[in-house]
Amino acid sequence: MNAAEHHDAPQQGERSTGQTVALSAKGLSKDFRGFRAVNNVDLDVVEGQIHALVGPNGAGKTTLFNLLTGYIKPTSGTITVHGKDITGREPEQIAHEGVARSFQITSLFDNLTPREHVELGLQGMAGGGMRFWRSDKQLRQYRERADQLVDEVGLSALADRPAGELAYGQKRALEMALVISLDPTVLLLDEPTAGMGREDVDRTIELVQQIAKGRTVVFVDHNMHVVGSLAHHVTVLMAGEVLARGTYETVRADQRVINAYLGEESNA
Ligand SMILES: Nc1ncnc2c1ncn2[C@@H]1O[C@H](COP(=O)(O)OP(=O)(O)OP(=O)(O)O)[C@@H](O)[C@H]1O
């Protein structure tokens, strides 16, 4: 038995290595009408790390993301956040445990500015909805926090421009501000650099590094430059199963991983 297989009954939310696990899946499976999209996946995301989920098309990455955030329910297996079992919970309940996610599809309002987007997000989160009778003091608090968040994603100079006028990479940065406005401890980013040119990709790498400080991040990305630049740990999925895991350098040298990607190229 090697070290990875040896389970010495660590405390809940803790690994035998002493590292704290922020998000964990055990034996997670998902069937879609008899088709097993995710098969018996074990995943430990260490607190404070950036963890990449990669794999060829159809490997099950999005399904796993949807399971971890409650958008779909597992057929079997368990999910824990900071040691707490959240299996079968609704997305809002999982968000309440500190897990937030971004989506590939953009959901911004063209006529609202970045500052307004974030302010509305903060108000909605506080449970006030669009209540316009909030006190000036409360509104000022939202304004200050919104400005901080807009600044954190590098959009200060564009804070008062309608979002419709922002470039694609800037819109994605604004979405990032909306996700971190939820104050998550665990952040799941679905293809943060999808559809971006090299310049935006590099800016997004820096942005993710910035917002990962003090948080745990899991992301899916097809761009190996992004994975290699960001990830402390990589899990490779293939046909719904974990094919390999380890550092970027370890998994990229793994013959099974090379074969999986070569297979994808020859199918293209
Ligand atoms: N709602 C669904 N009903 C039936 N099959 C599904 C459903 N969602 C996903 N699948 C199937 O499950 C498998 C895994 O899909 P998934 O979208 O999770 O892969 P992925 O790794 O995210 O792929 P990509 O990189 O292309 O986004 C695919 O074969 C897909 O067709």
From TrEMBL:
InterPro entries: AAA+_ATPase, ABC_AA/LPS_Transport, ABC_transporter-like_ATP-bd, ABC_transporter-like_CS, BCA_ABC_TP_C, P-loop_NTPase. Residues 1-22 are annotated as: Disordered. Keywords: ATP-binding, Nucleotide-binding, Transport. This is ABC transporter ATP-binding protein. Residues 23-264 form the ABC transporter domain. The keyword tRNA-binding does not apply. Signal peptide: none annotated. PROSITE patterns: ABC_TRANSPORTER_1, ABC_TRANSPORTER_2. Residues 13-22 have a biased composition (Polar residues). It comes from the Bacteria. Pfam families: ABC_tran, BCA_ABC_TP_C. It comes from Ornithinimicrobium cryptoxanthini. One of its GO terms (molecular function) is ATP binding. Gene3D superfamilies: P-loop containing nucleotide triphosphate hydrolases.
